[in-house]
Amino acid sequence: MRILVVDDQDLNRTMLQFMLESEGYEVILAEHGKVAIDIFDDVQPDIVLLDVVMPVMDGYETAPLLKQKAGDIHLPIIFITALDDQKSMLKCLEVGGDDFLAKPFDKVILTAKIRAHQRNRELSQSVTEQNKTLLYHQNQTEREHLIVEHIFSNALNNNNFVENIVDYHLSPASMFNGDLFLANRSPMGGSYILLGDFTGHGLAAAVGALPTAQTFFAMTAKGLAVGDIAKEINSQLLRLLPDDMFCAACIIELSSHGKALSVWSGGMPDVLLINKESGIKQRIPSQHMALGILEDDEFDIDSYNFEVHPLDKLIAFTDGVIEAHNARDVMFGQERLESLYQSNPEANISDVIETLRAFCGDIEQQDDVSMCQVNCLPIEDEYRDPEEKLAPLPWQFTLNVCPDHIRETDPVSHILDMISGIKGMTKHRSTLFLVLAELYNNAVDHGLLNLDSKLKDGEDGFFNYYMQRQEALDNLTSGQVTLTASYDPDEHLVCFIVKDTGKGFNCGSVNKENHLDNQHGRGISLIGELCQSIAYSDNGTKVEVKYSTDSTSAEDMHYSI
């Protein structure tokens, strides 16, 4: 403990020095306030004994300067004074004094005061150190949050949707959103939308967003059904999240022609199908458990599939909307939301959010609030010119796909991306995807992996088939599939040639068997309907199809959704 004694009297300084050093304290002496200020930074005293009346700079002037130099740590200043009038003592306190020591000095009282103020000083130092530690951790946490927020923002910023078709609102209750909105275009030209609500809110709830987004974008790029997408996300979340975390979710697919909707919903409030003239047409209840709870063999992929019309729109929302409450602790509720749409079927999301905020008033938001709206309109009409002419140039390109490529990439999507970039080809993307995906999958499954389609027959046929497919694909070390795509502008024909290095099969059986009553073989019949010609050669290891760009696109046919 270091004590600074500031007094212009040599006798007082010497006496105080003797008393304090005898108690084990280190003592520094100063003749007046100016000296005390000059040496303060070097000596860093813990307590100051300060005389009031001194030449050059008195105690009244010195005390506030000493306090200022001490900063955030409490510096006890004990005034040494023979003054006993209240006015002088009050002034001592006003300028920063903490106590008084009367002359002549009493060692017992002096020591007692020093010890008392020593405790205050040590307490202040401890609090200051704790504050510094807390501030450091706070800054570290804020920095980490900013980094995580940046990662989340980039990772979830891949949404791809047509603005006139899809609208949404996300309002987090804290920095990180436990609700999730994802959207992507399908290879068939339609749109996928996912609205999710993880357990709780904040960073803990948001951690599931990354694996969900990665799986969603990977599965939608393959054009999978909403139930299959839900199953894959469920499998990922079940593996990654703790037992007490899950994700209520609604996954929607709108066909490119805007006439068909598929909805898988688990743990969410009722989805509303609304006609902009007549109001609510249908309530679509959640028929499944939330994602991340059930094992794969317990998971149900069933979805709602129904026809819609241009005046229809689908509204999905999280429970944060209907469970929001006002100052009287009354919830907004499903009934109030439906009443809003029933009275004003053309209401959009911004209208609902405005009504919700007016209802809640100044009450702090307790949960994440999210909504999305899907307008049932033809999607392609929103981003392309239906009269766009095909480029008059011929083109051709070839991909050689080895086992590693088969396991890790989707060559069909790559080829379709290239084709779609050619003027006039966008409107044919969905049909060409159907054709090439079927040919490529047949070449891999039956050519390289030598799987039998009859495995798909039976109650668990598809499950057993794909289990064997995955196992065979994991063990595949050799073989190749060659994909060639070309265009003849004179004949208006797109040609696909798919060749594999497998054993082949009896080509003649393709034209003789009727597969439409089986769980397998439907793809080849479908290609026969879509394309001008299909021909196998080289003992079934090579197939060539020709598609006329004058044909009706797949999304306008009866079997397309």
TrEMBL record:
Domain of life assignment: Bacteria
The keyword Hydrolase belongs to this UniProt entry's keyword annotation: yes
SMART domains found in the cross-reference section: PP2C_SIG, REC
Keywords, alphabetical: Hydrolase, Phosphoprotein
Chain segments annotated as transmembrane: none
Residues annotated with 4-aspartylphosphate modification: 51
Ranges of residues in domain Response regulatory: 2-118
Keyword NAD: no
GO molecular function, one term: phosphatase activity
One family name in Pfam for this protein: Response_reg
GO biological process: phosphorelay signal transduction system
PANTHER family named in the record: STAGE II SPORULATION PROTEIN E, STAGE II SPORULATION PROTEIN E-RELATED
Protein name, entry field: Fused response regulator/phosphatase
Organism of derivation: Saccharobesus litoralis
